[in-house]
Amino acid sequence: DSGVTQTPKHLITATGQRVTLRCSPRSGDLSVYWYQQSLDQGLQFLIQYYNGEERAKGNILERFSAQQFPDLHSELNLSSLELGDSALYFCASSRRGLNEKLFFGSGTQLSVL
Amino acid sequence: ILNVEQSPQSLHVQEGDSTNFTCSFPSSNFYALHWYRWETAKSPEALFVMTLNGDEKKKGRISATLNTKEGYSYLYIKGSQPEDSATYLCASLAYGGATNKLIFGTGTLLAVQP
Questions:
Q1: CB of B42 closer than 8 Å to CB of B32
Q2: Which of A67, A88, A92, B33 might form a disulfide with A33, Cβ 3.0–4.6 angstroms?
Q3: Is A99 near chain B, with CB under 8 Å?
Q4: How far out from the chain centre does Cα B64 lie?
Q5: More confident residue, B70 or A99
């Protein structure tokens, strides 16, 4: 158990809908990262938050947004969903930054039908 | 090299064989190199984070080396066991101005036959 909690584990929805993925980092970790794993692709970095503030942005679509709350949990909001958004979404956390090991949650498998 | 590249893509070995994989990454603005082990139906688990040229780290039968000047890292598994079967991911962190990003390779899938 990595100590990172992601909910829900599975999500099935229709095109055009909006969903929210939730992540609670390990106790004491200030940084939260979101990654997307699609078929035939490696882990694609979406966005990083550090202590409530956006720290870095990757290949995140404009239809996607995220935030980190004062209790350090984070939410990833995906809207106007398309078939191609179907993927495994991982959240990871670290104490501070990227020169430390990342601890991954178990992921949310999103299926857009 | 602009991306993080891993080779081979997949590897099938017999129990007891020793094996190694390669991770190639951009050497400019290098900051850190991560290795993760990802078992099927689980989440990636950190093995090592290395930052210094010549770094060598070991965890049980698994070890890794780092060459930051030429931009490569090797992961070695001594005496492979079936429980070592997993995808091994490396990720490179480079200084990116105001923000730094950890870029993952697509992994090496290791299958160890009993």
A1: no
A2: A92
A3: yes
A4: 8
A5: B70
Give the strand pairing for B45-50 and B30-38: antiparallel
Are the beta carbons of A104 and B31 separated by less than 8 Å?
no
Identify the residue with better confidence: A51 or A1.
A51
> What is the Cα–Cα distance from B92 to B99, expressed in whole angstroms?
14
CB A54 within 8 A of CB A39: no
Read off the pLDDT of each residue in A13-32 and give the average, rounded to a whole number: 97
Provide the shortest C-alpha distance from residue B81 to chain A (in Å): 22
Residue-level pLDDT at B37: 97
Residue B100 token pair: 């730094």
Secondary structure string (H, E, C) spanning chain A: CCCCEEECCEEEECCCCCEEEEEECCCCCCEEEEEEECCCCCEEEEEEEECCEEEEECCCCCCEEEEECCCCCEEEEECCCCHHHCEEEEEEEECCCCCCCCEECCCEEEEEC
How many CB atoms lie under 10 A from the CB of residue A74?
Answer: 25
A3 near A27, Cβ under 8 Å? yes
Residue of A37, A18, A20, A30 whose CA lies nearest to A106: A37
Contact check, Cβ <8 Å, B44/A58: no
Nearest CA in chain A to B87: A42
